[in-house]
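ok so i was messing around last nite and threw this chain in just to see what happens. nothing serious, just curious
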Amino acid sequence: MAAIVLGSVPVVKRIVRPGELVVEVVDGDTFIIQNRQPIRLYGVDAPAVEDCMGTEARQTLKKKILGKRVVIKEPLSDGRGRIMALVYLKKELVNETLVKNGLAMYRRQAGTEKEAMKAANEYARNKGAGIYGPECYQKEPPDTECAIKGNLEGDRGEKIYYAPSCPYYVQVIVEKFMGEKWFCSEKEARESGFTRSSDCLGSERD
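result:
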């Protein structure tokens, strides 16, 4: 705050920070502010642009915040040069909006907005919105000739595939928004870097 003196009486002038100007949107959960600092939406994992709903997520975030000033709260470093934060456009929590519309997944972190983010994720899941819709979230193969499920498991995204003969096959979900995919043969899965799940019985088949 700064003081302006009118006569002998100081008048306090409150300086309100207008927020950070968004100059670029990278994808559905990352953008860049005017000083070129990358910001990632805290607690959010949006699809890569090339994955299911990735383009839609990026376009939605771009339309909402590009060229506008946002308020960044509870910033944390992600160790990769980006700042993770709760991002507000006026009173709207942008993180929550992306999740509630099925354009991003809640990832167990969100600072003081954890409960709101969890509720938004459940809303989208129950509604079958966006990434939880049949285009991106699949138990049954769209093409019965390509029924092998390629999953990314664990924090490191280990590439594992499940053939229909696997005992837990029916329970496995292909989350295409996370980069998971269907294969038409075990050979095709292996050539893409996937390894047959240890839970599966029998030998690999082409």
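not much to say yet. Residues 139-196 form one domain.
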